Amino acid sequence: MANSFAADISKWVQKTGIKADIVLKKIVFDAFAGVILRSPVDTGRFRASWRVSVNSVNDTVEPDRAGVPSPLKGQGGSAPADPGEQQVAQIAISTAKFGDIVYITNNLPYGPALEGGWSKQAPSGVMAITFLEIVTNLQNAIASVP
Q1: Where along the chain do its domains lie?
Q2: CB 20 within 8 Å of CB 98
Q3: Coil vs helix vs strand at 104
Q4: CA 95, CA 102: separation in Å to the nearest integer?
Q5: Predicted TM-score (pTM) of this structure
Q6: What is the pLDDT of residues 4-24, one digit of tens each?
């Protein structure tokens, strides 16, 4: 699927004259924002542990701040990712070029359970629904170009 998806993007880029690097950056930015916004929030650690990296995996996570009161507790959709990590992600996105492998990861051990619908805040998961939306929107954009 990845090769087909890349081929579709390449054809669309040729038809529209839009630079492939810009398309890639937009897709990655939308995907990163999507997983953050869809992440369930209890303490905010899961949402703050999303990472973006180019051509290698960033396997870091947000430190556990057990015992530290969190203003995020119970606020299902309002907690941002860690501002420092957001800046790191923005830098990574800005350096990405079409053909690079861009990783969006969350390395907390309970991530797979959340993706499987364990949380009532995200019963359909986080990544799958975000990427389905990205692919659907891109396919619609491709189909709209004569």
Answers
A1: 2-144
A2: yes
A3: strand
A4: 10
A5: 0.79
A6: 777 777 777 787 788 888 888
